[in-house]
Design goal:
- There is one protein chain.
- By secondary structure, this protein is an alpha+beta fold.
- The protein has two domains: about 220 residues, DNA mismatch repair MutH/Restriction endonuclease, type II (ECO RV Endonuclease, Chain A), CATH 3.40.600.10; about 220 residues, ECO RV Endonuclease, Chain A.
- About 30% of the residues lie in helices and about 20% in strands.
- It is built from 15 helices and 17 strands.
- The chain has a four-stranded mixed β-sheet with strand order 2-1-4-5.
- It binds a DNA duplex through helix 10, strand 10, strand 11 and strand 14.
Length: about 450
Amino acid sequence: METKPYNPGDVASIFEYSKGILGHTLRDFVPVGYEARKGKGGLGEMVEEIFFGYDKNSNPEADFSIAGLELKCTPLKNSKKQELLIKERLVCGMIDYIEEAGKDFEHSHFYEKCRLMLLLFYLHLAQTDKLDLEFIYSVLWQLPEKDLLIIKQDYEIIHNKIVNGLAHTLSEGDTMYLGACRKGQKGEDTTKQYNSDIPAPTRAFCLKMAYMRTILDFVQKSGTNAICNYKLPKGEEAVSVDALKSKTFDSIIIDRFRPYLGKDEQTLARELKINLSADSKSKFYQLANAIAHEGKHSNINKSEEFQKAGLMMKTVRVQANGKIREAMSFENINYQEVYDNDEWLESRLYEIYSSRFLFVIFREQTPDVRDYVLDKVFFWTMPQEDLATAEDYWNNIRTCVVQNKIAPKYFWKAADNRNFHVRPKGRDSRDLVENPNGGKCRKYCYWFNNDYISKIVNSHA
DNA sequence: GCATGATCATGC
DNA sequence: GCATGATCATGC
């Protein structure tokens, strides 16, 4: 048997050896006359063959199966500011609905292969031969115990839908870290599912974008020599490991609100020991944050789990007449991002709108008295059909930005009644930002229309 | 009365 | 200084 420059049965040895590819492309190692593989998975196979000297023909088994290690190559991209960004969610195996229905988490393909991964981040460049892509980071990623608890809960949510013949209703927004993402030609392929005749879109297990970003964040902060298992540098934890052992993440959060349901602003402020300034525009958010975060001063949207999951808490006020007075704003449109990226599924807006939301509803008791009480709390994700509308919305925004038409008359308005609109959001009218077409322009942000929020709130008892 | 544009407190 | 999470304020 051929000797390798590393010990194929030893994780640490493989990891050490892998660092030799950093700053290089496969071209630096490729033998004369090597025939490049095609397709998306081709890069990983070529790394095994060319860099690790792995002979597929003599051993068709999984990557480094002796060491229990899964090799994954995953792309980064450069922003216009030359920052490295995650390009894609990490796909961790197609889901065969029929086969998966008979499994449990501990026997799932995901658990068996992805608990311990050697991640090789490379820089994606369009129209570039795979042999010429540069490898940037190598990280040995062992899913931390706490993440595994959440991922197991994610798996069970996905598995339940599969078993109940609801695979066609799966959505990446159903779950926290482990997602069931669409896969296949234009994301339109369907396949046979378990326990139902309804064809379901083909999907794969994946570690979602937000989770991948925290891995990249870890690598960049600790250097490529570090072996996983880390604490998120900023942001406190929302829930403890111990709590996750007996309850789901969702129920832990929801249960924190129960003792406060029906209570008004002043009572909540008193019980939560918060000094609210009367003219704060985000005082209901502050109250909700104190409840959800168990009195912690920090913003729960910045907590470890909310960040890793891309989960967002939003508060809504419902007037006594049942109407929602205010539309809901999201972050400012990053014109450069919109300008640079022409893929809806890779857009920041898609990430925001396909993420999970924790809605906290306050309801006015007496018309025009503003005596709001905490009314209800629920998790929500945007339905597929609304995401399709969101794609049109994003296409319009992108056209506006690319054609340098960054003004209200070109954007969707609330009056257009299409769920979403664009409106200013800045310190004041002189608050400007760089226009990718040159010069400066006003700040605008993404919004939900009032009636769209109404629909969401009313669909939850 | 509501859609649209304008603006604010806060925290990092 | 600026992003965040919003609400205010006015003109149609």
